[in-house]
Structure formats: C-alpha cells, structure tokens
Amino acid sequence: MTISARVKQQMESASWIRKMFEEGEELKRKVGAAAVFDFSLGNPIAEPPAKFHEVMAKLLQEAPSGSHRYMPNAGFPEVRAAIAAWLSERSQRPFLPERIVMACGAGGGLNITLKALLDPGDEVVIFAPYFVEYLFYVDNHGGKVRVAETTDRFDLDVNDLEKVLSPRTKAVIINSPNNPTGRLYPAEALARLGESLRRASEKGKEPIYLISDEPYRQILFDGLVAPDVFDAYSHTILVTSHSKDLSIPGERIGFVAVGPDCADAAELAGAMTFANRILGFVNAPALMQRASARLQGVTVDPGVYQRKRDLIAPALKEMGYEVAQPEGAFYVFPKSPIDDDVRFTHLLLEENILVVPGAGFGRPGHFRISFCVPDEVITSSLPGFLKALESTR
User: Fold this and answer.
1) Fewer CB within a 10 Å sphere, N or C end of the chain?
2) Residue 14: what pLDDT?
3) Shared domain check, 330 and 353
4) Are both 265 and 305 inside the same structural domain?
C-alpha cells in the first residue's frame, strides 16, 4: 500500500460534510446549480466589513521594506501586543503578549495547542455534537478522544462529562457558539463546567486544560453577548480565528491566547511557538497578522445571518420539524423525523436539498443545515423540506 493505512482509514470515514458537498457537485452537474439547494458547507457568505478593505489598502500602501520576511514563529511582537491589549480590555484581565501565538486559523491554533499538550495516549474530551475535525486533530498528536454528551437542548452536561474524565484526561474542548447547533453556552453552564474541572484537576494533582474554540464568538443573535470563559476556569486556552467574524476563511489567520491564570502559561506558550515551527506552519501569514492587529473587535453584521435564521428556523417548526433555536453561528440542527438521519438526508437529496446527517457530528437522529446561503436558496428550498417531511408520515 502506497499511503498510510491510518490515513486511508481516516479518508474512508472522513467528514460527512465533504461527502455531501461532493454529492451536491455531481447533482449540480446533472440538474444545474440553480436547481440545487446546498446547505452542506459552513462557508461564510457575508463580505468582509468595509474596515477590512480600508486596513488592507493602507497596509499595502505603507508596506515598509521587509514587510513580508520571516518573523518570530509566534508572530510579530507588535501584533501580539495589540491582541493582548484588546483581550485585556475585553476581559479585564492582564493578558501578556508573550502568551499570544499567531496561528494559521483556528485549525492551526488547535493543532499547535494539542501538539504542545499531548503525550501518546493522553485523552481529550469533546462534547457531542462536535466539529468533526476535532477527531483528526487529536489523533494527529497521539491523543485519544472521549465524548461527553450534551442535553436534548444541546447544553453542556457536566454529569456526563464526569463519567468520561479519567486520570489520562489532559484537555476538554468546547465550541460556543457551537457548530453544528448554534447553541451559545451561558455563563451558568460554563461555571458548572469550570467547577467540575477544578475538582477533577485537584483530584488528579495535574491541571486539566479547557480549550475554548471561539471562531463564531461575534456571530450572535437577538442582542446576546458571549460570556467570558476565563471567568469560569483559570486553566483556559482560547483558540480563535477571523474566518467567520471578518468573513475571510481563505486568509487563514487566528491566534491562541493562554489565560493569565493558566498553569505553566509561559511554558505552554513556548511549546505552542515551537509547535508552530515544527508542524510546518512556521508562522501565520505576515500581511494578515498586521491586518488583525488593527481589526480586533471588528465584525461582519450578525444581522445578515440572523435574518437567514429567521427565514428557515420558524418555517421548519411550522412544518412540524423539531428545531432548537440557534443563538449564534450560522447553523441549525433539526431533529430528523425518522431515526435514521442518513436515510432522511437522502430523502432531502431527492428534493435537491443538501444537508449533513447528525451522525457526522456524533449526534445521530439530527441533521445540520448551514444557512450561510443566499436568501432565495432558503425560501426556494422550503417546499422540498415539507415534501421530504410528509414522505415520512
């Protein structure tokens, strides 16, 4: 066999998101793109804010000599200082530039964090439903995934978490607002989680790290504000990107911030910097680093996505689907009207509707709709959603 057996197995069991996307491409070739309603990919549709274009134009005009050379693996010192200052103001905590590492998106940030933390066999707990790439990221660095469940309303279930924590647990990953549910974990839920991790850390004599994956933090609806995860637990590592809030996923820019009260914070930041180098990222893109320093707190208008949520979620409920109202991001995660969510996604496919089965996110019996699509795609798809539902009755 030419390729790694492990990679071959992973490719065969890879993301349902990509599988449905590929089926959609074939369907578009057959019936035409206008006749296909593709809700498979979470690819932001909003254009970057005007401020982003202003900053980019100014940076290109200024462009001092050496602007595009290598810099320290953790990123430009002045960029890290700007982000530390912004985080300090937002959270009223003293973030240090030395504990900020610029990363190639949140995916790059998660990989350097896990590389820095994990020895072979160490365990990382994730909550279902989860972003499927977590499975591969943990495996990349010799870790083992343990899955804790959320409630029927997709709230953190601390009781279930405590069943899967073990002496080998090194970290817990949370994602809020959540992909695929759109659930924003409230401060009370984070406080319960923090207390559980404190007890487990004291019992095991070693800190369990909380990794908060927050690329959707600024895409919130109905006036909601995301609670500060650092209020809930001291051994916290923030990983984020500007893929969603600035709508620039192709630019691959994000950062990791080690919390001011985190155990071994300086050593952790150093290990992540080293991991940035040896994993081949080397450094985050230079131009985008400089842009991000001037764009902290800037975001696309979340109202663009709230309007789309309000087009699809109430309509599905009126048809008879069981739908939890998304509070952020751009996903809705309805319950499948039949137990076999994969089969139901194929019933939708017969109506030229592409969604992703919940099995791909560790929560069978549901399906994910990514509503970052033109409004007319949503409205034109509704008769097909109704027909597929009626076919199950």
Assistant:
1) N
2) 65
3) yes
4) no
